[in-house]
Design the sequence.
């Protein structure tokens, strides 16, 4: 069975923190887990990410932004995700197709139907088995992201999305929640406001609830 799990949510909601903890948690249980991230999961993706971070030297319209993310995803799926799944690894991915729908669809107002078609094309129709959505009030997420930037990650301070107006991030949060509401069987909405440890426990609970986890037989016994 292919295990492809995505981590989604707005800026500073805890995705990157939690994906690391989740991958370690799985590996400690003997599960081969690969943790990867969009858009930078491949060399091409890192180039595209640099273009998207855009330190003010050029403009990127909403359509071009959408297509750049789609290009990064297409390469990521082909080069990293599908081969890892074929090799029997679990793949945990920090942002995936839902992010495109939330940011470029709900956030930028591009056509959702077209984005869904483009997402399916870029991902070779691959869909996550489970998506963890870290939900957090916009202000709290942005405050965390700012604090992180101040803590020595200058490139994050220049992130185009972090500089967007509050209303943009509000649309993203609502967008994610409505995407999740439409596919309740795939989504788990996790309150991102708790401590790192509390949120991690919730993530583990979601992983444990996946069917047919051989390692849990031993733990439960
Ligand atoms: N539960 C938490 N409570 C308090 N601070 C947290 C929590 N989770 C993460 N942080 C801190 O908040 C900042 C943002 O977290 P993180 O980078 O994991 O978020 P993210 O969702 O990956 O953000 P981005 O969308 O910008 O990539 C980091 O400095 C992290 O250490
Ligand atoms: Mg992150």
Sequence:
């Amino acid at each position: 069975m292919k295990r492809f799990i995505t981590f989604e949510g707005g800026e500073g909601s805890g995705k990157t923190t939690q994906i690391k903890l989740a991958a370690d948690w799985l590996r400690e249980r003997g599960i081969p887990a690969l943790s990867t991230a969009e858009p930078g999961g491949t060399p091409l993706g890192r180039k595209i990410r640099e273009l998207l971070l855009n330190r003010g030297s050029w403009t990127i319209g909403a359509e071009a932004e959408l297509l750049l993310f789609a290009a990064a995803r297409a390469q990521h799926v082909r080069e990293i995700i599908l081969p890892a799944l074929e090799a029997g690894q679990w793949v945990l991915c920090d942002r995936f197709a839902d992010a495109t729908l939330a940011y470029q669809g709900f956030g930028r107002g591009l056509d959702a139907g077209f984005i869904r078609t483009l997402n399916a094309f870029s991902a070779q129709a691959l869909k996550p088995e489970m998506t963890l959505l870290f939900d957090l009030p916009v202000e709290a997420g942005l405050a965390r992201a700012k604090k992180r930037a101040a803590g020595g990650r200058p490139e994050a301070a220049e992130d185009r999305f972090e500089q967007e107006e509050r209303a943009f991030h509000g649309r993203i949060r609502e967008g994610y929640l409505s995407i999740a509401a439409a596919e309740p069987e795939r989504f788990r909405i996790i309150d991102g406001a708790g401590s790192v440890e509390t949120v991690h426990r919730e993530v583990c609970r979601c992983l444990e609830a996946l069917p047919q986890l051989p390692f849990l037989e031993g733990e439960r016994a």
